[in-house]
Design goal:
The protein is built from seven helices and no strands. It is 79% helix and 0% strand.
Length: 196
């Protein structure tokens, strides 16, 4: 197994630490969760960079890399439904995860037909914006967490406006998710149209 694939596999393990830490009441738990997610995001860029630089891209990496992203982002979004219900609505997460299942299903169908579905540009943009949204939400939660210990440094401006900005960001992500899913369905319609 090459170095890029090892990094990708290690990223799949991060949600199993990230989830309980984010949902716990441990001191600075939200900040630790933020740190873990940032590490995972950097590793997502790093494994792709190594694979391209050393020319060690593989079918395994093409399949597992987006799956690792989906697991991590889905874990965070499901937690946000509970932690920040005024920002992340359940139907946002249903749309995002449903699209991911749909594309994963298409990838499996493509693999059965010896076809590799490369990541599309809009799919990469969607994932990047999802990571930005998750990191922003975790940063906001970390800010609230620190305010418990340093209440004199709390800013009402942050508390009032950041949730509003995050809501807009998640609506944009849902729109990108729907467009991305529709484009995948159209571009790879040859995989399933004869079976309908």
């Amino acid at each position: 197994m090459n170095a890029a694939n090892k990094i990708t596999l290690s990223r799949i393990l991060i949600p199993f630490i990230f989830l309980p830490v984010l949902m716990s009441d441990m001191p600075y738990g939200k900040t630790i969760a933020l740190f873990l997610f940032v590490i995972a995001s950097i590793s997502d860029w790093l494994d792709g960079y190594i694979a391209r630089k050393l020319k060690i891209t593989s079918d395994f990496g093409s399949l597992i890399d987006p799956l690792a992203d989906k697991i991590l982002i889905s874990a965070a979004l499901i937690c946000f439904i509970i932690i920040t219900p005024d920002i992340v609505k359940p139907w946002y997460v249903v749309v995002i995860i449903s699209r991911d299942f749909l594309v994963t299903g298409l990838r499996l169908l493509a693999a059965k037909k010896d076809t590799i579905m490369a990541a599309e540009s809009i799919g990469k943009h969607k994932t990047a914006w999802q990571m930005i949204a998750v990191i922003s939400t975790l940063s906001f939660l970390s800010y609230i967490e620190f305010s418990r210990y340093f209440p004199e440094r709390i800013s009402n401006l942050v508390l009032d406006y950041v949730p509003f900005v995050l809501r807009i960001l998640y609506v944009v992500i849902v729109a990108l998710t729907l467009i991305s899913g529709a484009l995948y369905l159209w571009r790879y319609r040859s995989l399933y149209k004869n079976n309908l």
